Fold:
Amino acid sequence: MSAEHVEARPGAYADSVTLMRVSADVRQADGVQAALIAMATELNLGLLPEMGFRPPQDAGPNHLLVAVRASDDAALAGALAVVDTALSARALSATLGASLVQAPRTTGAAVRAGGPGLALISVPGRYAFAEAMDALEAGCDVMIFSDNVPVEEEIMLKDFAARRDLIVMGPDCGTAIVGGVGLGFSHTLAAGPVGIVAASGTGAQQVLCLLDYAGAGVSAALGVGGRDLSAAIGGRSARAALALLDANPGTELIMVVSKPPAAEVAAGLRDFAARLQTPVQFALVAPGEPDLTAATETAITALGLPVPAWPRWPGEVPDGEVRSGAGHRVPQNGGALRGLFAGGTLCDEAMVIASDRLGPIRSNIPLRPELSLAAREPVLGATVAGHVMIDFGDDELTMGRAHPMIDQSLRLERLAAEAADPAVSVVLLDVVLGHGAHPDPAAELGPAIAAARASGGVAVVVSLIGAASDPQRLGRQAAALQAAGADVFASNAAAARFACDLIEGAL
Amino acid sequence: MSELLRREPHIISSGLSLLAEAAREQAARVTQVDWAPPMAGTEDVLVPVLSDQRRIAANALAVERMLAVRAHLVDVAPAGPTLDLQPGEFLHAGPPVSWDRAAGPLRGALMGAAVFEGLAGSPEAAAELAGRGAFALAPCHSRRAVGPMAGVISPSMWLFVLEDPATGQRTYCSLNEGLGKVLRYGAFSPDVLERLGWMAAVLGPLLAAAVRRHGPVDVTAILAQMVQMGDEGHNRNRTGTLMLLRDLLPSMVESGIASGDIARAAAFIGGNDHFFLNLSMPACKLALDAARDIPGATMVVAMARNGTDFGIQVSGTGDEWFTAPALTPRGLFLGGYGPGDASPDIGDSAITETAGLGGFAMAAAPAIAALVGGTAADALGTTRRMYEITLAEHPLYRVPALEFRGTPAGIDVTLVARTGILPQINTGMAGKVAGTGQVGAGLVTPPAAVFPAALRSLARSLPPLRPDETAVSSSS
Structure:
């Protein structure tokens, strides 16, 4: 006999990370069987039936969803008290502090109090425009971490910024390094000669971490947003970022990192880059282009540095032998490859590499439209056939949720489902470390990988994107993932090729 | 070119606290914005209004014009000829309202004023006439006037006439009757009418003679000084009243009018801490009227209540009122009155908050915070909070306790919608039954719904986008 409570509270708002912490606190309360504390977005409402809850009537994205099932009424009451305590801490401090120094409520107010700077905006996407416009009016450069910002709003913001000699990084700008400070999902690197312009967060992180390992530091990394090199945006911020880095005396080489750009925009940007004083190296993830690792190696060579052997765990295996260092037992029927990515560009890169080797790969961010999976299909459990790669960081899967680099739960569920699918032989994952990311991803992924390996003998291959100074400690994460039975690579391209080797070796 | 790569990073973070923490851990200077979603019903109109290319310059112009106004008291004159107000016509506070929907205090004031004008033999007879539609009602704001509480102005009442010397623009307000049982709080007993008669027969002409003899009185200068002496210009006008009396008394004495009348007038003014309110209000209206009718401007130019509805007007939307049912203030009550006796919010006096005084200047008048059991720290907190929703800091109204920072002035509808912070209004409370008079004083806000309504109208008034505004910019 269990007790249940489902409620949609109007006017109660907290950010997705806070709510995730609250959900975690509640799940750990005595007698709690299931709990979801989240904003009532369509996605979160869709999760309720799966958890055995009946969705409340008339709930919308401005409602706070509180769904708890516990062993009995007393446990339920205890759990709800945990919810209220966790949520009221902020309200209480706001009341007590009202008379004293008040935190600014808008970016404009913050600038009036403390002067301009770089506005880092991570509010839900539909509200990002107002905050960004406010920041630009107050003379701030802007980094919009939020996704789900309409393209026409992006154009207005970038044009307004250009008129004021400011730059808009984003929307959907996951990564930046400015003045030595890593912002968003980022890393702290030594200062150095490489400036990065990135229309891709995790692509930039891959390049940054490889540069870090090779001993080449960065002057700055300017994200411009995943859509900046699309035909609609036309590289507005990429040009501004290139001009900024070109004028920066500490930058000797510029790398442009992007997921597949619009061809005419890429061509225009190459022309623009050719007119700069500073040499520009392009790392565009697209068929026929060098992969990110190869482009980074070219840059390292151009700087006069030796290209190192990129780390893998376990260490090198004899050349030409397709054998999992982790002792994978690969099914003999070939089997399907499943990629479960937090990073969109890492997913793109893996698809470019694997489709060349294995044939078409279906995805929610497909290389070609005919390979499209309906966005929610992979999350909500429909089984699909063949090779599939999913970007869990895609806009439609992050509505009302934290990014999968913070909240791994959807990916963990999917990993278990793939392991249980007899058609699947290899699962390819990315794990991205650094500022902003989960404090210890291997602690959650390790047991899930071990369970997946144990359940069906599926092989697990991980690309581990991390820098030496990351707070999660790269070596410790690698060791934990390897101990769970995964093959781990610092190069995403190398991980993708190894996964293909495993599949092909089984044919 | 952007300073991004040249200055020390100062990160201003709105949204995920995790990202701010990560930057802070790298020893960056970080300011965290306490962000929350905008008011319900504004999500879809905020973007078009904020992207209106006229908005920034329009609001800058609205602020510039508001702050440039100097209000001088230039005359005191009867309302009939001054406002072309005919017998049977009455002005009232707030947005337009009919007798049928009028609140108790407004009905009481209209009944008393009709008797005062000799249109009815008794308040009851006046109510019957009003019910038959015998009187014409119009908002004070429609005649460039303002009136506190019920705000009723009838032809025989005398008005302060304020003028901006730079533009010649004028505004008007009735003379203040004092506190307690007074017409503006809806009382109409014989002593109320007798006082109105004395004000029209003696006080008005005496003040007119004194002002003409003295020359224009710089009301803006008095406002600037009183804010530094514990007044906020709405619920506390003690210093302003005494400064006015100081300026006018010699001219009153020299006017040749009987010394007994002068003595009674001086005692009346000096004994009425709210006398200056009726100069503070038209001074604020004069400043805000200068900011009216600027296309694209999102600044509020009037907040006013009639006891039934609370209405605001916005610079970019002309004379359109955005209304919703008025809230009831909370505060302290006189004598045996309690919360159940109070009428919903009433009066044009929220024009003071609209111009950066009243609740917005509460930090200058901590005594006001006691009305709701608050502390001096609460008064500071209230003014600080109002900076979040205003476009400017008033260069003349400076608050000693905030290191002489100017008061927050010029409410921006978009900032109210974004923050959900409602303007704080200090106000008197009238009894809800006609004839009662004042029952207390306290604090109130506008009903939230007026701001989304104004924002929707601003969105409707947007010009169509020109094609070049969305064109792809060329490389440079």
